[in-house]
Every structure is written in structure tokens, then in C-alpha cells.
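#lab-general

N.A. 3:47 PM
ok so I finally got the sequence cleaned up, no stray characters, all 290 residues accounted for. can someone with queue access submit it? mine expired

B.Y. 3:52 PM
send it over

N.A. 3:53 PM
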Amino acid sequence: MTTADLRIDAWAKVNLTLHVTGRRADGYHELDSLVVFAGVGDVLEIKPADDLSLTVEGPFAAALGDPSENLVMRAATALRARYSPGAGAHVHLTKFLPVAAGIGGGSCDAAAALRGLNEFWRLSADPAELIALGAALGADVPVCLAGRPSFMGGVGERIDAAPVLPRFWLVLVNPGIPLSTPAVFKSRQGPFSQSFRWRGALKDVPALAARLNEGRNDLEAPAALLVPEIGEVLAALRATPACLMARMSGSGATCFGIYGEKDTACSAAAGIRAAYPAWWAEAAPVVLAS
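B.Y. 4:20 PM
back already:
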């Protein structure tokens, strides 16, 4: 059984902090990260069909390659195999987020596909089962399924609700250079970090920025060795009026600036686009509830 045509947003994932806390015997790194979602992202549209199919368009569609290998298609196939809905679906993905950019574009798309097809096929799938399916697709998919500010631990499988955050805006900037996550981890050197978490609400956005400055992104320095333009992006963000802090997200190369107001964020994004027309720059509010 299916429902009517469905549209679902796949918001960009932003790592406000990212500490590499260890490495497991299987080679995967243990992480501790505060993750939020920005109100800018890809869009999935789901329509009835006899079989499963995927089409892709948008400014970053060409970077995705074969649609049959896309995480959206893999998520849809896994969900159908698990629940046998007795129907197909056509998914149309509009790709607005840069690829291999440290903002979880593929993972957010996969999570949106799992959530959307669960509703479209009226499966009422158990959330824990969706998380298990998501984890098999990628380490960031479980937190993208949560879709709310969260502390992420382990290799992505441990999700804890973050403290209440004040409302704030982000400016996301990518220099147009894809960055391989394995390459960034390979170039990381030095000791592992302690986890970085806190309890209790923060009174305002400056207090949030001050708290975040007590942490870091352990992948920022190794990523900047591979893509020196990351340093230019961070300098451009920090030079904008009212930017409270700037940092790289995930394994890069997208960086973010934190702003207290919509007007200052939008002005900053517009100024960066004008000064660096080859860069992708967007202002967006943080999504505080899923």
C-alpha cells in the first residue's frame, strides 16, 4: 500500500565539534561529535511506480555518477527487501548540496529515503530497525535519521540528544574541491582526543560559540594540508561582520560560521559569493527539532 506523492527534505549535516577519540581493531575511528542540521539541503520526491527507480538532477547531480550506486537507491532497496511493501516507487533527487563536502549529503539523502519510503509505503517500521538499516549504509546515516541536534559517538552508532541550543544561523561555504574522508583520516597525526560534551542549556548564541571554542574539529588540520583552500574559506568567514566562530565540518572541505541573526548570516553569505564566485555559500537556520 502506498500513500500520495511525497516530498521530503534532506538537510545538511554539520559537525560543530568532531573529536577523534580512538581507533578500533577493525581500523574504524571512534568519534565524538556535536551534530546539527542546517535548513538547506537536497530534496527527495517520491511517486508511485511498479518498480524502484531513481532520477537525479540539480547543480551537483553530475558529481554523483551512476544512480544505481547512489545511497538513496541502496536505502530503498534495503528497506523493500526487509519489509516487502508489495509496491515500487520512483524517487527523484534534486541535488543542491556539494558532494564529498563534509556535510553528509549522501547520508542525509539515504536517511530521507528511509524515512520517506517508510511513510510512502505505510510500513510503520520500528525506528531501531531503520537505524540498523541506516548504519549498514554509512556511519552518518543514523544521526541523519535522528534529524535533531545530537551527540554522536562510536563510529556513528551511538546517538544522544544534545542539550537545548539557542536559535542561531549558519553560513556554509565550500571551495568547490571534493575531499576524500579516508584520505583525511590517513593524514591525521598525533594523539587521540577526549570526548567533548556538556549538560544544560546555554543562554545565548555567544555563549554557544564560546563553549564550542573549547572543542575543535580534529580533522581540520589534516584536511587543510590536502586542500589549503580550507584556510582561505575559514579566513573569509571570520572576516565577515558578526561571525562568532568558524570551523570546518566533518572531513571537509565545507566550513561554517555561526551567526546570531538571519540578516547578518545572509549578508555574510552574499558577500562571500560576490568575492569568491567559484565557491558555494549558503546561509541557513539550524533545525532544532525533527
